[in-house]
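User: Can you model how iron/sulfur cluster sits in this protein?
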Amino acid sequence: MTATRPINRMKTADNSDNLRPEPIAVSPFGKRRYHAWNEQVKVRRGGRVQKVSVIAGFTCPNRDGLVGWGGCTFCNNEGFTPGYLERSQSITEQIDAGLDFLHRRYPTTTRFIAYFQSYSNTYGEFERLRACYQEALSHPQICGLALGTRPDCLPDDVLDYLAELAREHIIELEIGVESCNDAVLARVNRGHDFAASVDAIQRAAARGLEVTAHVMLGLPGESFQSMLDGAGELSALPIHALKIHQLQLVRGTALARQWQRDPASVPLLGEQACIELLADFIECLSPAILLQRVGSEVPPSLKLAPEWNLRLSELAPRISAELARRGSWQGCRYLPRGYIAACHEHRPPHH
Ligand code: SF4
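Assistant: Here's the modeled complex, given as structure tokens:
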């Protein structure tokens, strides 16, 4: 990317010296002002490739007792499951049902990948995983897989197999990082630390797999600064793309119950504060990372809080408008870590 620019010194919120690129007049990402996944991937893949969701019946080590019980406090997988899915159907039947729906919605799209989204889709016996992936890939209209999973469910043999599949198919590996802050991860009962994410992302990338990381902004215990620091931590990793979600409380989750008992323990962002945080986070991200999502939408029947509602189709333009108002864009506050480290070495000791 060409978004890095000359730098000068400025004061940060904590009054420490920092380096910040000088503003230039034109966003390298056009009107969107961030590195949008859709536009880039459409060009690279020669057209639109749509995801068709499937449920393979996997579970999660943070629910079945291997790592923990009860799961992450924000998790309710119903929030991610399209209404057309019928759990009792085979993967092939689910793909057929999904395609029936998607052909009506996107009549000009001809290429699809199977999206294993709910729970941890690399968690299970290797042969079972392979059979599920192969069933999806043997469908005549499926040209790849998107697999959502946890970082601690990616043993080397699974990564080797996915790398082998990636030679002939589209393979999108989505790893739930959620936060780069270990105290926050512990507080939401995530069951792994940030080091686990770093390890999984590095091992996947070393095999040539393209990783999409998933982060959630606004988790309890997270501060404004810790989230912006997280943007820097993620930018230092070999991540191809990022999905950013803002915290929303989903009915039936431990976090929703906690908020109902004690709202002060789960601070929620207002609409404008959330837009501003997303803009700040995007400014601090590497311009090389594609943004596959810049926010999330929970079905109204499942959402408990916050009260404000923005469809994704409204949220993304609001973020672009906020970046435009500031005259900024993705990466304008990002500096490669090596440079910052070098500068820190020359700071006086009291810094
Ligand atoms: S968010 Fe993912 S890792 Fe956490 S409990 Fe739910 S399925 Fe498991």
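A couple of observations from the model: The first strand starts at residue 7 and ends at 11. The longest helix spans residues 91-105.
User: Helpful, thanks.
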